[in-house]
Amino acid sequence: MKHIVLAQAAGASTSIINILLFASIFVVFYFFIIRPQSKRAKDQQSFLDNLETGERVITTGGIYGKVTNIEGDLIVLEVAAGTRIRVAKSSISMEMTKSLSQTKVVK
User: HSE of 106 in the Cβ direction (CA atoms, 13 Å)?
Assistant: First the structure.
């Protein structure tokens, strides 16, 4: 009878350890993957919502330009003197001054 009780107690403690292990893995994923990703998405959406004409930006395709007009979900970029293109607002990656500060200068 003692052996059965001890075996059941050992099985219960193994189950608790497994549950705690999975819970800790989820917590690690949340704080290192899910939370930073959602913060970046929120910051990007805030940047797009506050975008104004005259700002220099970069598209996700790598096109540098100056915002000359905002038409709802479309942005008109001046990429060269007198050359303008229309791009989707969601394709704007970041402000140019921010991207230039993130690049390393190679000598």
Answer: 1
Q: What is the pLDDT of residues 70-86, one digit of tens each?
A: 998 999 999 999 999 99
15-57 pLDDT, tens digit per residue, is: 889 899 999 999 998 889 989 999 988 988 898 999 999 999 9
CB 48 within 8 A of CB 89: yes
The DSSP secondary-structure symbol of 103 reads S
Per residue, the 3-state secondary structure of 47-86, as one string, reads: HHHCCCCCCEEEECCCCEEEEEEEECCEEEEEEECCEEEE
CATH 3.40.1000 applies to domain 53-102: no
**Residue at token pair 């893995």:** 25
- Domain extent listing, the chain: 1-50, 53-102
State the DSSP H helix or E strand holding residue 40, giving kind and residue range, or none if neither.
Answer: helix 35-49
pTM of the predicted model as reported, rounded to 2 decimal places: 0.62
**H or E stretch including 25?**
helix 2-29
